[in-house]
Amino acid sequence: MKRLLGIAAALVALFAAGALFGWQGVVLVMTVLIAWLLLQFARLMKLMGMASKGPVGRVASAAALDGQLRAGMKMVDLLPLAGSLGEKLPGTVQRYGWTDAGGARVEVELGGDGRVQRWTLIPADAH
Predict the structure, then answer these.
(1) What is the reported pTM?
(2) 76, 48 Cβ separation under 8 angstroms
(3) Domain covering 55-126: architecture
(4) Per-residue model confidence as pLDDT tens digits over 25-53
(5) Would you call 18 exposed, middle or buried from its count of C-beta atoms within 10 A (0-12, 13-18, 19+)?
(6) DSSP states of 14-64 as a string?
């Protein structure tokens, strides 16, 4: 829903700028939109670069990650908390796991929209 609202706002700004200022207004709005998209792309590349430096499926503290997780979080909000990409777990749903040095594990299930639905902290002595 937020995505549709953003697209609608961009289109309204584009048409309003065209009606009020002509082609110069359209160019200005397009410049602002392209700059915003480039900022989003740069943020995503920085996030992926940071996450790729850590070993896949490892986290400093599974308990700390468990305490910071919230339902509805996006994957781009989860990756900085974990510090690495999650290990894909078998199954039909999108499930990823992170293990700390002590053996504790956090398993996160994502919905179809890429948001955290549920997660489980599995203590080291449980596996």
Answers:
(1) 0.73
(2) no
(3) 2-Layer Sandwich (3.30)
(4) 999 999 999 999 999 999 999 988 888 88
(5) middle
(6) HHHHHHHHTHHHHHHHHHHHHHHHHHHHHHHHHHHHHHHHSPTTB-S-HHH
